[in-house]
Design a protein that fits this description.
The protein is 22% helix and 11% strand. The longest helix has 51 residues. The protein is α+β, with helices and mostly antiparallel strands. It is globular and about 90 Å long. The strands form five sheets. It has a four-stranded antiparallel sheet. The protein has a two-stranded antiparallel ribbon with strand order 1-2.
């Protein structure tokens, strides 16, 4: 009678070792495949936003979607913030920044039902320039019927996905990023202690719209421009008191190089670096949406340096400052980098990829001599 042959301890250990080795070989490949799939989805979402932009333009006389697409108003006007649009809730605004806050409030109240007097009403707020991470709110009628808008979040962006999943958890005590009011990063700003600001993070986007889309080109005109101490805030050079910078009103026909001018960009490259690389790092390869409707993943080092419209005769470099749970710095935390396609020289008339910068002053020529890291 034959006995059943069992594994010896050594044979069992060998089998376990082989399985462990196979797992070790396969896991990185599985992880890379997963990241590649996320990147495809992210690019698809950017294309949907670009399609929404074109649909908006087709319905609105070629206008680029933006807050403030209206006749210029330099005096006090009233904006209807009531969900029923019956004029019962009015907000007085004085300039384009105030108008953007009121316009955004009216849209978010309408699509969420979080109206004035409800427990979680969308508050009127003009503490931020809502054009950068929230411009897509203007497109909500051209996107999905789900709010917050799922297309606005990159599948790589855990912060934005967390905010979308917990849109009502914006008050003190929440674990959602920024919920306690002040970011834990270098760039702290006391104005985060404001429910009207924090409650809007759920409706933000992982894809930033470049300033030239909603701002002037900054060529002998009042404009918003970057500031030296943080890449997260912009400053107006349009004068004190009423903000005379014209916001909105830009058109597709003003874009000189549609295939070479970035329209929206994913703020971090998480395919090339799992921790995330900010767009300004030369080695970053972020997903970029162009005005011709294409979406490409290109190296920042291949883009033109960009500029600060308030200092046009200088190469503009800035330090990356992480916020809270955003990706950290790489290399020297004090190093400064060109801002590239975020601040294209000459705005919509300029070019980011595939051609030399437009309007480069003589003191910055030849272009190849501009150092984008110091």
């Amino acid at each position: 009678m034959k006995k059943n042959k069992a594994f010896t301890l050594i044979e069992l250990l060998v089998v376990i070792a082989i399985i462990a080795l196979l797992i070790g070989i396969l896991l990185p490949a599985i992880g890379k495949a997963r990241d590649t799939a996320k990147n495809v989805l992210s690019q698809s979402r950017m294309r949907q936003l670009a399609l929404g932009a074109n649909s908006y333009a087709a319905d609105n006389n070629d206008l680029l979607f933006s807050y403030g697409n209206r006749p210029r108003v330099n005096s006090r006007v009233e904006v209807d913030l009531s969900c029923a649009q019956d004029g019962s809730v009015m907000q007085v605004v004085r300039d384009d920044v105030d108008f953007a806050g009121a316009q955004q409030t009216a849209i978010l109240r309408r699509v969420t039902g979080r109206c004035e007097g409800s427990p979680n009403e969308i508050e009127y707020n003009n503490d931020r320039l809502w054009h950068r991470r929230w411009s897509h709110v203007i497109l909500l009628d051209y996107l999905t019927t789900t709010q917050p808008e799922p297309i606005a979040a990159s599948p790589f962006d855990k912060n934005q996905l967390d905010w979308q999943a917990d849109q009502l958890e914006f008050r003190q005590g929440s674990t959602v990023p920024y919920a306690n009011g002040t970011p834990n990063g270098v760039d702290a700003d006391g104005r985060w202690n404001n429910d009207g600001v924090r409650q809007r993070w759920a409706f933000a986007s992982s894809y930033q719209t470049v300033p030239a889309h909603w701002n002037s080109d900054g060529i002998n005109t009042p404009t918003y421009h970057p500031v030296a101490d943080t890449p997260h805030l912009f400053r107006s050079n349009g004068g004190q008191g009423v903000n005379f910078v014209r916001l909105g009103g830009r058109k597709f026909s003003q874009v000189a190089f549609p295939a070479g001018k970035v329209f929206q960009f994913e703020e971090f490259d998480r395919l090339g670096n799992r921790q995330g690389l900010a767009w300004m790092y030369p080695q970053a390869q972020c997903n970029l949406s162009f005005y011709d409707g294409s979406v490409r993943r290109l190296a920042s080092s291949e883009a033109n340096p960009g500029w600060n419209p308030d200092q046009p005769d200088q190469a503009w470099l800035q330090t990356y400052l992480p916020l809270d749970t955003f990706p950290g710095t790489v290399g020297d935390p004090n190093a400064r980098y060109c801002q590239r396609y975020r601040w294209t020289r000459h705005g919509l008339r300029g070019v980011d990829y595939g051609g030399k910068e437009v309007g480069l002053p003589q003191n910055l020529r030849p272009q190849e001599s501009i150092e984008c890291v110091d």
